[in-house]
Amino acid sequence: MKPANFEYFRATSIDHACELLSVHGDDAKILAGGQSLIAAMNYRLARPQVLIDISNIDNPSEITDEINGIRVKATTTQAVAEHDPVVRDRLPMLVDALEHIAHFQIRNKGTVGGSIVNADPASELPAMSLLLDAEYEIQSASNKHVMAAEDFFITYMTTALQSDEVLVSILFKEPPKNCGWALHEVARRAGDYALVGSAAIIALDDDGKCAYARVVLFGVASTPVRAKEVEELLVGQICSDELFEEAAKRVSEVVDAESDVHVTDEYRGNVAEVLTVRSLADALSRTQTAS
Amino acid sequence: MKKPIEIAGVTKHIGVPRKRSEDPQILMGQAKYVDDIKLPGTLEVAFFRSTHAHARIKKLKLDGAKKHPDCIHIFTNEEFSAGATTFFPNTRGTLHPVLMPFFAHGKVRFVGEIIAAVVAPSRYIAEDIVDLIEVEYATLPAYNDVEDAMQPDAVLIHEDLESNVYYADSFSNGDVDKAFSEADLVVSEKITTGRTSAAPMETRGVMATWGWDDTLTVWSSTQMPYPLRTSIAVNLGISEQTIRVVAPTVGGGFGQKAHFFPEEFILPWIAKEIKQPVKWIEDRREHLLSASHAKQCTIYMNIAFMKDGTMVGMKIKNIGDSGAYSQYPWSGLIESVAANNGAPGAFTVPNISFETVVCLTNKMSTGAYRGVGWSAGCYAREMVMTKAARLLDLDIIEIYRKNFIRHDEFPYTTSTNQTYDSGDYHKVLEKCMEMSDYEDTKKQPRSTKDGKLRGVGIAFFVEQTNWGSRSAEESGFPATLHDTTTVEMDPTGKVTVRSGQFSHGQGLKTTLAQVAAETLGVPFDDVVVLDGDTATGAYGMGTFASRSAVIGGGSVIRAATDVRNKLLTIAAHVMEANAADLEIDEGKIYVKGSPDRSMTVAEIAYITYYDRFTRPDEDEVEPTLTATRHYDPPAAYANGSHAIHIELDPQTGKVDIKRIVAVEDCGNMINPKVVDGQMRGGASQGLGMGLLESLDYDESGQLKNASFMDFMIPNATTLPDIECAHIVTPSPYTEGGFKGAGEAAMLSVHIALSNALVDALSEYDGPLVPMVTPIGPQQVMDLINNTNQPQAR
Amino acid sequence: MVDKQKIHLTVNGTAYDREIEPRTLLSDFIRHHLDLTGTHVGCEHGICGSCTILMDGLPVRSCLTFALQAEGKAIETIESLDTNGELSPLQNAFWENQGLQCGFCTPGILMSMKAFLEDNPKPTRDEIREALSGNLCRCTGYHDIVDSVVAAAEAALSSGTAKA
Amino acid sequence: MKLEGTADFLYEPQDVWTALHDVDILVKTIPGCRSMEPDDEGGYVVAVSLGVAAIKGDYEGKVRVTDVKFPHHYVLDGEGAGTPGYINMKVDCYLDAVADGTLMRWSCDAEVGGLIAGIGGRVMTGISKYMAKQFFKALNDEMKNLFEEKKIKSA
Lengths: 291, 793, 164, 155
Description:
With 793 residues, chain B is α+β, with helices and mostly antiparallel strands. Chain B is built from 20 helices and 28 strands.
């Protein structure tokens, strides 16, 4: 299990990386933390002819506090994000998710952007992107644009990112103050990809009705899924276990569950419902204690 | 039967939990595993392996690959002149050998079978070249399930056989039909156990080089250096004394490395052809595809019970899944034959009959892995017993107690003709129940506040240990197994133990030294154990099948006793005392009662070698202090019990292991700390089999989880601490009263786990008893969903 | 054929300059170019953790790192722990508590635990298990490894330093 | 691996059939298809690059159309091999005339071997579904250009 040959370029900046991409086009791949890419290359499943390494650009890890949320430079390692005081203070749910990613040795090298671009539907950060209405700052040699996380994920390991584009930064938006949140996942062992995962955020208005809801499922279908149908049923309602169970029933309408060597699509469908109820209930309990 | 040797003197070393002498170099990263050994000019080998499970090779195209500038050579069956078998003359003659060729010729029979070997300057380049090899296949139907492969119209995996079944035998004792007709309850189930892999952290690896004088040195990550040496000699037609096999530090084996694999013959042969050292290090994907698999059986288990839980009869059909070949030296019979011969376990089963069938499939062949046969066989028996307990409204404990062989019944010959030497099963079970608060926990409500279900399960096992010829015979294997040890005391009184055993994690360098120090009466630090190198050891079968403490330890006791006696004879002469009055203690020889009349062992040793004027005449006592002894002991049967507490999430099927208790009786312990280590490691592997591990093949014979990402072994959060205890009933048959400990450790963990699951689900309509391993979230939910909702009792 | 590239890095305090194929994995570079064979390779896809080393003080998988990515970095391997054959408190705790059997996974575990104990000098058994979950061991069942780490933590605290 | 799906076309079955059997169209519409040349056994030799993200593989293979019942049913038999492994598949295709065109029902039984089977299993189904979607979308677009005039103006 040794990787095939490739040409290696160490990018000094994102601009430099884009420039290199524009030259090498489809044959080139961006190498950030490499925690998924290098494994695939060792198996020779992945054989890019050119690697553009952005892990050594100037201050790769950068986290900036912005009015409506937190901007994380794509090359920031998951470990840095996980331990960042601002993130811990404003986006505790993101910290929770980061702690669920593989093992600390992986998070020391794996990057926030890398995990998102790798677009494994079972991994946590794509799901968090949907949960936190994230916006992706994307750049190529010729242009820059911003894309909502919602429009980004197409299927397994396939995203809207063009072959000449680089993900530069991610803006994770801060949910309403006093919101409650929760993340639940079933994995066979600690650190494994989730067989099924669910995350939720709930905020209440003054008279205790649900004013804001986000429900996301991961590890279930070929992409992470935001369950708007579930959210719609909650907003404006008085939250209760019954309501949550009612709402969670819609999960099956939203997700096209997949089977694998561990569990069947049916298992994924049912457990997605179960975990959604749990996330919602825990989120609610945290809202009440929040204010 | 010869009476075992009493260990003389005060026990200063045996039974002491001393730390292991092999550890410091490992902890400093200085231990050398095969891939750490460097020889100048070593070339690397990568194999081109079949991507098809069952196909004829129409055309093998090497041209592209050979054009690669760095391609040194590509070997295939065509160039492989040596006899193409991995057969070792060590099993029943009547059995069709179903040999695995070194290189596939004509057809391939499993995904991962070797078709060609590429030699290149580095593994990276070798893999580049492997990528350039092309094959045209004509595919044939592939068989994943034995019961499909057994069909009369099934395509033959080996055309020289009449059927894919290459072994079928039956046995009967007592009046089974009568027992079943008179029983109050008969429980019949089909049980299937998952295919797993020992998956040691170090994969296999082989390096070979030829000397200027035509001597061959082979480094292999093996558990059995001497049998491998003989096998290389036989298969490559080399005279054995010119071969040196070295098993350097080995990163775990668990039985898997106690086989002969094609790579171990191909590498030496290639080294000779290209006249340069060559190395092959197996990668993890290769390992999961083509290092022997284990434990997959399909078992039809029928047990007849009386109302009070008495087992009156047992009827078994065990179909072993051999994979595509018979793996030697043990053959593909190893799982099902061992399972059936040990079927009664700890119980008196007066009437028993079994059928043993071994069938080929298109998967890597099945071989030894810790607890061979018994892991699957015991599981089948126990799940049926557990179901019976629920149907008879008894606790499994009551069925155990009712059917246990009593301690006053030993030696006890089972209905399958195995003679158990010793034990106190009731005592071990009570201990395990007490430590695990079994009865109290059973009284607690199943449901926890957070909607989980609590469960506790217990299980008991008997394990046949110390594979010498007689153990093997009692398990249905006409194999010849024994071991040899040479003990040398040099002129300075220091001791070298040359062993045929081989430690690859078991700490034998420590435990065998403890036995030698004890027997000789010298300080532990004065003893060095040499193992793992045929140039410095003594011919032995190696370390597997819970045999080393007993057979290795026993042969050390024998040889060391000879040296001790000689030492005393000479000392008596020198000290003008009666040998019978002399005592040896920590290197000092003194006359009993008057410690002032003493000499050191070193002084006597020096005299023995260098002072013919002081020592006795040569015709009285031969000079030098060396002895070589052999040992092929009677079978000794260890026993033990596991208890497991779980919390089950009935909505997701997730099982959390809360507590594990392990009680074992392996007779006298040489080093209790090492025994604990075995118990804990075994518990983890048993849990792996019960909870996680399954090599899953699809209908076309593709392994679906050829990575550690999807083939999962336990990690540190899978299991809690493992509470250990020991009950000691020494074996009356073996030197030192030792019984084996290694495999026992994993024999009933998966059973205790399933019993805990059954307990957690005991308020559901049922009884719900899993008849498969492993039990992942999917299997738990399947179990639950086959029933109605929970009902209040 | 791809050109070799220059790399400069320090390993266990020694500076090295080499020319390597870009595809050279850091694990192979350490083991076969520098002959520091204490770092082991158990799966080459980042699951088993045997190849864990410290890069600028942080434990990472050397099998999921190209050597070129370690340009200018400081690497520590198992060979850096002892002092001329004298075991470090962490190594000693593993010896005392039999925190190893075959020892193949041990170097990766020691390097992971060294960093872990520096971050968390007083860990609970559960925290230790969580931290160990990225290192597979097939022999020990982990219990004795957890004991070893607990002992190492206690030793370090009593000797008044968090350095394991 | 078993997959099935349906696709709607705003054209008569025979037009859809024509498109589905037009090599030029197929080369343009089959995801990753590099070439498609008739072979001497009445089938085609196909070269495709398949994969996602960095995980790509080149396959060479043969396809053959059997059980032809113009314009309602045919079976596509394909086999291909490349460095990541091999694929053998049988696609059963039914074209039914419906009110506003044609409904295509297809079911695919694929056997995947080698690296992708052992490592990529988790993603295979999802990716295949996605590629089928891509194919039919591309096919519809092609047909727009080719016989727009034949398009059924559904009420």
